[in-house]
Amino acid sequence: xxxxxxxxxxxxxxxxxxxxxxxxxxxxxxxxxxxxxxxxxxxxxxxxxxxxxxxxxxxxxxxxxxxxxxxxxxxxxxxxxxxxxxxxxxxxxxxxxxxxxxxxxxxxxxxxxxxxxxxxxxxxxxxxxxxxxxxxxxxxxxxxxxxxxxxxxxxxxxxxxxxxxxxxxxxxxxxxxxxxxxxxxxxxxxxxxxxxxxxxxxxxxxxxxxxxxxxxxxxxxxxxxxxxxxxxxxxxxxxxxxxxxxxxxxxxxxxxxxxxxxxxxxxxxxxxxxxxxxxxxxxxxxxxxxxxxxxxxxxxxxxxxxxxxxxxxxxxxxxxxxxxxxxxxxxxxxxxxxxxxxxxxxxxxxxxxxxxxxxxxxxxxxxxxxxxxxxxxxxxxxxxxxxxxxxxxxxxxxxxxxxx
Length: 404
Known about the structure:
Elements: H1 2-40, E1 43-47, H2 48-54, E2 57-59, E3 62-77, E4 83-86, E5 92-97, E6 104-105, E7 110-115, H3 117-148, H4 154-181, H5 185-188, E8 196-200, E9 205-210, E10 217-218, E11 225-228, E12 234-240, E13 252-257, E14 264-271, E15 281-288, E16 300-316, E17 321-323, E18 326-333, H6 335-340, H7 345-349, E19 351-364, E20 368-373, E21 383-386, H8 388-403
């Protein structure tokens, strides 16, 4: 009986020891795996062959001059003198239209021909005024002679002079009106009557609008044509209040038109002195360096004004990746391989290891970007300059495999 109890006691002790042994090591393995997984998410390794296939290139930190730029938006605009609305001087019926939208015209080109009975009546009235003026001039001279000799009444002379001067100014005003209408007053005064008048282009440019048909009546204040000269088109951008103090005449602007990749260059030539309440900013007018026939007023643009140059620690823009709102670079390191120690020397010999390292980016130039290091990184450290997003994708694959 005593022997049986002893055997049971020994069996229970063995079971307890087995349980303790099995539990202890498993917990340690689990914690080590978690630590390895946590460490490995910061590293990625590639073979030399993989690097060649993706075209991975390395670079180093470099001190460079970086252009500090402020973003702006706006539109292409014309100066007031490069846009003209054309209306007739007097009302008339359209007899002929000589242009289409898009036609190139020069200052003085005929756009349309108008006719109206009132036009001929104006010329007839002018001929009658000329005849009356001739009579009044003679009467004025006669009354002046009588007044000087004390023969005639002073009152009669004053009346004759007033009538003569009134008619003389009327004739002069009609001649000026003929000049505006494009009618040769000298020909009218010898009896040549013009039944129609021409509408002329006031500037060089292209016809951008035709709002009339043959046979239509157009009033003196009615807009009929619009002429635009895109030769001097400029960029009109808005600078917001926080950046107003940074903007000066002569600064360079790089911009592109919405929907196009081509980058154009302009230079600030005028800054509005008034702040627009709706946009909380000011208008900045920029002369475009190389004008293009494809530039059209009212096109939306987006660009940057270069306000200063700074010397900064930089990397190529292609070296920086964005992930979950943070900026990273991949720095070459040997530490991960030494820590893992699982692969053979032959397997590690052909592999390069890179560590994903968080950084803060500053000002950005056309090709390079300012880098602010959040942890010590040697200036001579090798950084992935091209292919960083491929490494990020490889890390993502590793995380998925670990989850599986």
